[in-house]
Design brief:
The chain is α/β, with parallel strands linked by helices. The protein has 2 domains: 3-75, Translation Initiation Factor IF3, CATH 3.30.110; 82-200, Hypothetical Protein Ychn, Chain: A, CATH 3.40.1260.10. Helices cover 41% and strands 22% of the residues. The protein contains 8 helices and 9 strands. It has helices at 14-25, 36-48, 72-76, 80-89, 107-123, 148-156, 165-170, 185-194, and strands spanning 3-6, 28-33, 52-58, 61-67, 93-97, 130-133, 160-164, 181-183, 197-200. The strands form 2 sheets. The chain has a 5-stranded parallel β-sheet with strand order 8-7-6-5-9. Helix 1 packs across helix 2 and helix 5 (107-123) runs parallel beside helix 6 (148-156). The longest helix has 17 residues, at 107-123.
Amino acid sequence: MSQIVDARGLACPQPVVNARKALEQHDSIIIIVDNMVAVENLKRMASAMKCIISEEKRTDGFYLTIIKTSDTASAAEPSSDTADKSCSDTPRRILVMSQDVMGKGDDILGKILLKSFFHTLAETAPVPDTIVFFNSGVKLVAEGSDVLEDIQSIEKKGTTILSCGTCLDYFKIKDTLGAGSISNMYEIKELLIGGSSVTTI
């Protein structure tokens, strides 16, 4: 019988944290959440852990069944040899955009500089492996952004674009996301702590 985890009313990234903790003790869980951001975050987690996941929408929330597979353990905890090889042979370049301007001082100048930066990034090599957007930085990936077209070009070159779901909700622009996918603080933490080269703007 699956362990039931009630994560309704919990803010990001707690549903993901609770799900991972439950999966450490059980082969399958049913986690209940009350919003689509949590649903998408749990789906991403399940995919990364190589779990099977199914979703059922009920009147009192979303019921997600997550089942571990034979590949789950290796996906959740890669061997030290693999981790060492990844760090030494293929270093990851992670760019963090924490605001919608570049530098501190004059915001008008900051927007001009940022537009020039992303255009240069889109036109030259190399590009980052991942760009993480949070706080006012998520405005850059929303429809109407002056740099959205360049971000889309960068994404086509293979860069993973991740935006903080809590931040998108705060600015009420989640439905206008123009590039990449919605992420959560658990995934962002794992990425930044494990990244071999992190640059924050």
